[in-house]
């Protein structure tokens, strides 16, 4: 990865992943593994967890974008991730709006600052 930036990985519904792929984030690594997973109704929870853990282990991924409703399915895995890279960002989907109270990363960040720090 010397001289190259890091990739964005996307775990989401078809509309979300398609939008990011059209934006140019799709790529295969040297082992032909994609940096995205389309989650459908019949996608097994184990497959979602495996893809997320796989993205965490890849040294070419710097950010993981995940639809928040999918993050809720694997919350225990996301909460166990405590490194800054790759950063995990929960995003809304067309069918499920974003709820800041469910975002574990945002809750952790809020706990790092007091009102005095922001003045």
UniProtKB/TrEMBL annotation:
Keywords, ordered alphabetically: Hydrogen ion transport, Ion transport, Transport
GO molecular function, one term: proton-transporting ATPase activity, rotational mechanism
Gene Ontology CC terms: membrane; proton-transporting V-type ATPase, V1 domain
A Pfam family this chain is assigned to: ATP-synt_F
Highest taxon, organism lineage: Eukaryota
Subunit structure: V-ATPase is a heteromultimeric enzyme made up of two complexes: the ATP-hydrolytic V1 complex and the proton translocation V0 complex.
Role this protein plays: Subunit of the V1 complex of vacuolar(H+)-ATPase (V-ATPase), a multisubunit enzyme composed of a peripheral complex (V1) that hydrolyzes ATP and a membrane integral complex (V0) that translocates protons. V-ATPase is responsible for acidifying and maintaining the pH of intracellular compartments and in some cell types, is targeted to the plasma membrane, where it is responsible for acidifying the extracellular environment.
Family from the record: Belongs to the V-ATPase F subunit family.
Protein name: V-type proton ATPase subunit F
Native source species: Anolis carolinensis (Green anole)
Lineage per the UniProt record: Eukaryota, Metazoa, Chordata, Craniata, Vertebrata
Gene assigned in the entry: atp6v1f
């Amino acid at each position: 990865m010397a001289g190259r930036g890091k990739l964005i990985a996307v775990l989401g519904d078809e509309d979300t992943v398609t939008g990011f792929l059209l934006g140019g984030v799709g790529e295969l690594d040297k082992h032909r593994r994609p940096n995205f997973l389309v989650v459908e109704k019949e996608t097994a929870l184990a497959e979602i967890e495996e893809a997320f853990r796989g993205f965490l282990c890849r040294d070419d991924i710097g950010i993981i974008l995940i639809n928040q409703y999918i993050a809720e399915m694997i919350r225990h895995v996301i909460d166990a991730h405590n490194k800054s890279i790759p950063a995990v960002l929960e995003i809304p989907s067309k069918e499920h709006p974003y709820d800041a109270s469910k975002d574990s990363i945002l809750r952790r960040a809020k706990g790092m600052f007091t009102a005095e720090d922001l003045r």
